[in-house]
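Dear H.,

Thanks for agreeing to be a second pair of eyes. The structure we're designing against is below in token form, covering all 372 positions.
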């Protein structure tokens, strides 16, 4: 769907890393990568970790989520969002998405809270389960921002910490603000299939300096800084990103703007083609800028979707359906959910189409032809 693009300083930064002998986490490259991501996203702090799933796990812990709590999220997402909730011993509660953004609906979020929750001692309690709703975790699907400002407003009203899963949306903005910076914490993934990659990697974003300090502490085995003593003040994680990955990330960050420009051209080309044949594409909200990570079309129904998937894959064009709903998976089947009508509707119709940057970085805007 999206293959990585290595057209810049990747090899030279990796060689520098090896020459310096600092290939593990204690290297200048990790801090430099964090500075680059913080500066690009506008987050006050960025903490580099080994992958996006662990970034989510750490963000949820920092938001105060604990065993026996609940986290509100969407059913239409990649499984990592819900796995991270399980890692911290909490249960997901599934709220429907908006049909246009494929992301959590602020209207359904409010409806759910007004129907099922009460505020007690500064905490939102789920009336049916009696559990604390300790975080809200929306996701920006395929890079397209959800209605994050409205979601944030609902979370503020209910005193529910907002954590954004921005794994797919580095380079996407809602208004002038980067996705992943609206809540208490946000997370990004640099997996091999993302808009830029470190091989494997993730980032925690936060404007809260205390939480940032704690994120770094927790992800470096909770070691108390000392010149030679080894001591740890809690059970921490070995989640700090190695320098080799960070070196790759520094080179990739230099190319992010260029990659997004080309992705915009690919998306525009797809849009003009699909418009002419009357097929709907997933488009960003007017007030948003998307990184156009993965292009997606919305087919008429399940039958048409299956025919399209079969035909394109037979022709060696890789296409794939959107994820199965998390609420249908064995491990999350018993979790609470709202009606999920939009999620079900989208699950049957949305298909991703090839979205890689071409080998030759040609200017696609000069190409007027558009063939199927
Ligand atoms: C929505 C979403 N959340 C979380 C992740 C997890 O990121 P990672 O693969 O880096 O663990 C991914 C991607 O893989 C994702 O697409």
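And this is the sequence the design step returned. I haven't edited it by hand at all.
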């Amino acid at each position: 769907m999206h293959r990585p693009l290595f057209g810049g300083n990747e090899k030279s930064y990796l060689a520098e890393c090896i020459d310096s002998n600092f290939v593990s986490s204690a290297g200048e490259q990790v801090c430099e990568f964090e500075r680059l991501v913080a500066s690009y996203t506008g987050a006050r702090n960025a903490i580099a970790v080994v992958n996006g799933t662990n970034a989510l796990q750490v963000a949820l812990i920092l938001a105060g989520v604990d065993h026996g709590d609940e986290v509100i999220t969407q059913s239409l997402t990649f499984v990592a969002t819900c796995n991270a909730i399980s890692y911290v011993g909490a249960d997901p509660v599934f709220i429907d998405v908006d049909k246009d953004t494929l992301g959590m609906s602020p209207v359904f979020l409010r409806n759910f809270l007004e129907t099922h929750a009460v505020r007690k001692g500064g905490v939102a309690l789920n009336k049916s389960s009696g559990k604390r709703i300790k975080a809200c975790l929306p996701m920006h699907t395929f890079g397209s921002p959800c209605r994050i400002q409205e979601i944030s407003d609902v979370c503020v009203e209910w005193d529910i910490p907002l954590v954004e899963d921005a794994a797919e949306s580095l380079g996407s903005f809602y208004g002038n603000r980067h996705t992943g910076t609206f809540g208490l914490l946000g997370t990004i993934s640099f997996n091999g299939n993302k808009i830029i990659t470190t091989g494997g990697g993730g980032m925690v974003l936060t404007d809260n300096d205390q939480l940032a300090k704690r994120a770094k502490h927790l992800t470096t085995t909770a070691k108390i800084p000392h010149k030679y003593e080894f001591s740890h003040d809690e059970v921490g994680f070995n989640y700090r990103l190695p320098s080799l990955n960070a070196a790759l990330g520094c080179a990739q960050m230099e190319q992010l703007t260029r990659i997004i420009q080309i992705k915009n051209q690919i998306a525009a080309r797809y849009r003009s083609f699909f418009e002419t044949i009357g097929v709907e594409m997933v488009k960003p909200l007017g007030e948003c800028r998307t990184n156009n990570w993965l292009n997606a079309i919305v087919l008429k129904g399940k039958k048409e979707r299956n025919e399209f998937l079969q035909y394109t894959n037979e022709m060696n064009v890789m296409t794939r359906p959107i994820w199965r709903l998390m609420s249908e998976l064995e491990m999350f089947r018993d979790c609470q959910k709202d009606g999920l009508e939009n999620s079900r509707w989208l699950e049957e119709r949305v298909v991703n189409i090839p979205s890689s940057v071409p080998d030759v970085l040609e200017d696609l805007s000069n190409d007027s032809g558009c063939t199927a």
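Two observations from my side: Confidence is low (pLDDT under 50) at residues 367-372. The first strand starts at residue 45 and ends at 49.

Warmly,
E.
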